[in-house]
Amino acid sequence: MRAGHSGTGWSIPMFSTCFVPVMKMRPIRKLRPLWVSRLLVQKRSGRLITNYRNTSMNQTGMVYIVGAGPGDPGLMTVRSLECLRQADVVIYDRLIPKTILDEAPAWADRIYAGKAPGKHYMSQDEINDLLVEGGQSGQTVVRLKGGDPCVFGRGSEEAEVCAQHGIPFEIVPGVTSAVAVPECAGIPLTHRGLSGSVAIITAHRADERQKVNWQACAAMDTLVVLMGVAHLPDVITELIKHGRSEKTPVAIISCGTWEEEQVIVGALHNIIDIAHEADIKSPAT
């Protein structure tokens, strides 16, 4: 049974594993990577608009690495909106809703840098180059990421690149889907007397040398697995292998906080079949 509020109160599994897929977004528009030459003068609605900031190529800009939250625009922070609304350039991921992207100024150049499993529209090196190029050209660049930029979002890596090139930057935290999506679906990650420990892991590892400590994960009261749908059989096998009962409750939440949100529940022994019947797809938490 899905954890939630009912006439008898909360129903919370002693150990819950949440796999939360989030909605796949199409790019708003495709822009070529060499965008700086198009920033100062852009065509909007059939007329030319000059970028009012009048930035100089000799002036150092600013890079904001911003978390946009799990998808619901109402869960975006005030600071995140402040940064987005002053952007000259927005480099955004595929899980950014159009309603959030529209908060950027009309003159701002929007660059799609989405990544899907096995299909990256732009490599991380290319994204890093854009951050450096924009900062060195005096632009205010917003690197807009779903959730929190530093929870498996590579935000810290992009901050390192800015630091190496002497470009000022600010990391703006966002509401991570690892916490918000289960809570919005009625599954609190902790509850006195039931769950006093939480672990958040990613099932997808770019560096295979970084092994998951499954023994530690299996000992957690609540485990949240990001990007887990494609690796669901492996995750379940490892948890059972390291001591979790096959009857351990599991929830998979698709499109968390979106209108299309879908929640399925089961246990470690049958969640694969349930997910297959529901046609749950990646990405996942």
Produce the secondary structure layout.
Layout: E1 5-6, E2 9-10, E3 16-19, E4 41-44, E5 47-50, E6 62-67, H1 78-84, E7 89-92, H2 98-101, E8 109-112, E9 115-116, E10 119-120, H3 124-136, E11 140-145, H4 155-164, E12 169-172, H5 177-184, E13 198-202, H6 214-218, E14 222-226, H7 232-241, E15 249-254, E16 262-267, H8 271-278
Parallel strand pairs: 3-14, 3-15, 6-11, 6-12, 7-8, 7-11, 13-14
Antiparallel strand pairs: 1-2, 4-5, 9-10, 15-16
CATH architecture of the largest domain: 3-Layer(aba) Sandwich
CA(first)-CA(last) distance = 19 Å
Q: If you average the pLDDT, what whole number results?
A: 81
Helix-strand topology string? EEEEEEHEHEEEHEHEHEHEHEEH
What is the 3D shape?
elongated
Q: What is the β-strand count?
A: 16
How big a fraction of the residues is strand?
15-25%
Low confidence ranges: 1-16, 19-57
With strands numbered from the N-terminus, the spatial order across the biggest sheet is 13-14-3-15-16
Write out the CATH superfamily name of the largest domain: Tetrapyrrole methylase, N-terminal domain
Q: Tell me, what is the CATH class of the largest domain? A: Alpha Beta
Question: How many domains, in number, for the residues?
Answer: 2
Write down the CATH topology of the largest domain. Answer: Cobalt-precorrin-4 Transmethylase, domain 1
